[in-house]
């Protein structure tokens, strides 16, 4: 369990209010919305220069990275991609502007949300995704070298897309 960070909790509360208001104002009647779901912000915590967590809405589930106080702002133009190294691997985020927030980074996990039967299932998925993001991928057991000479050590970067994220960075 992660220690509660007041700044992360405050960001999560602001994002929650923002997306609730957006839902009430213009999304609730859109066919992309799963009416069995609600807005929730899951697992927000400090990670490096960012507050990291998952934003769940009736129309998407995204990983969110917001700069912490004193950290450099996200200077990437809206819509540009920025890659962050997370414990589970590298994740590509899109720079996004939301009213009332500094520029944020979002990475899509699910959209649309029609495959979720209820809010509890979506919430459990968001919590599991956040836990998986914060764990390094398990290294495969290396095969013994074909000769008595040790193989050179190398460190492979794990490219993280949605498919590999849910396989925790494993290939195949």
Summarize the structure.
The chain is of the alpha+beta class and 172 residues long.
What features would you highlight for this structure?
single chain, globular, seven-stranded mixed sheet, 172 residues, alpha+beta, 3 helices
Largest sheet: 7 strands, mixed
Q: Averaged pLDDT, please?
A: 86
Structural Rg:
18 Å
User: How many beta-strand segments?
Assistant: 7
Low-pLDDT parts are 154-158
Element-by-element helix/strand order: HEEEEEEHEH
Q: What's the N-to-C terminus distance?
A: 31 Å
Strand content is 25-35%
Fraction of residues in helices? 10-25%
Total number of helices: 3
Shape: globular
Structural class: alpha+beta
Describe, in plain words, how this protein is organized in 3D.
With 172 residues, the protein is α+β, with helices and mostly antiparallel strands. It is built from three helices and seven strands; from the N terminus they run H-E-E-E-E-E-E-H-E-H. Strands 1, 2, 3, 4, 5, 6 and 7 form a seven-stranded mixed sheet that branches. Strand 5 and strand 6 (104-110) form a beta hairpin. It is globular and about 65 Å long.
């Amino acid at each position: 369990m992660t220690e509660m960070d007041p700044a992360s909790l405050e960001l999560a509360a602001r994002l929650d209010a923002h997306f609730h208001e957006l839902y009430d104002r213009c999304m609730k009647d859109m066919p992309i919305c799963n009416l069995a779901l609600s807005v929730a912000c899951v697992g927000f915590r400090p990670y490096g220069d960012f507050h990291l967590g998952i934003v769940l809405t009736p129309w998407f589930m995204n990983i969110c990275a917001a700069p912490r106080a004193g950290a450099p702002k996200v200077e990437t133009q809206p819509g540009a991609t920025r890659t962050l190294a997370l414990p589970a691997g590298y994740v590509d985020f899109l720079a996004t502007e939301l009213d009332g927030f500094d520029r944020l980074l979002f990475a899509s996990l699910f959209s649309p949300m029609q495959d979720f039967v209820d809010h509890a299932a979506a919430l459990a998925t968001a919590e599991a995704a956040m836990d998986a993001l914060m764990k390094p991928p398990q290294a495969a057991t290396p095969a013994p070298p074909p000769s008595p000479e040790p193989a050179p050590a190398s460190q492979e970067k794990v490219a993280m897309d949605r498919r590999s994220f849910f396989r925790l960075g494993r290939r195949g």
